Amino acid sequence: MPRIAGIDIPEKKRVDISLTYIYGIGRTNVYDVLKRAVIEPAKRVHDLTTEEVARLQKVVESLKVEGDLRKAVALNITRLKETGTYRGMRHSRGLPVRGQRTRTNARTKRGKRMTIGALKKEVLAKVDAAKKEKE
After folding, report:
1. Shared domain check, 13 and 53
2. pTM for the whole thing?
3. Which one, 8, 22, 51, 57, has least CB within 10 Å?
4. Alpha-carbon distance 128 to 62, whole Å?
């Protein structure tokens, strides 16, 4: 298994697909990487020569990928939080940042549904009993 940018890429897959396992290289820019490394996208990883793998590593090293990219994204988010921007506030509250609606949907960001308004008598009795036990 060739190791590029600290990631073992799958041998059985095509080069253009297996490079997307690296954080920061997606389906859109993988063809630019392969063009700079002079490698055919349809070639399988296990068919690559050591020279081609070395060229690929050299091209990927020139890009900001994996740990460096994750660190840059985290620093950008903390900067937004510290400056108190709207986007920073949304990040800190765990809400969608890019203008999506939250009245419905947004369940992955907001978590499990919780009923706030009307409670049934049995549930209300359990909640009151739990509060009395704490006191």
Report:
1. yes
2. 0.71
3. 51
4. 62
131 vs 52, higher pLDDT: 52
DSSP calls for the chain: --EETTEEPPSSSBHHHHGGGSTT--TTTHHHHHHHHT--TTSBGGG--HHHHHHHHHHHHTS--HHHHHHHHHHHHHHHHHHT-HHHHHHHHT--SSS---SS--HHHH-S----S---HHHHHHHHHHHHHH-
Same domain flag for 77 and 57:
no
What CATH number does the domain containing 33 carry?
Answer: 1.10.8.50
Q: Evaluate whether 3 touches 21 at the Cβ level (below 8 Å).
A: no
Structure tokens at 17: 């697909």
Q: Which domain, by its residues, includes 14? A: 3-63
Residue that is written with structure tokens 């253009």 in the block: 16
Structure token pair of residue 116:
């706030």
Residue 94 lies in a domain: yes
CATH number, domain with residue 81: 4.10.910.10
21-50: pLDDT as tens digits:
999 999 999 999 999 999 999 999 999 999
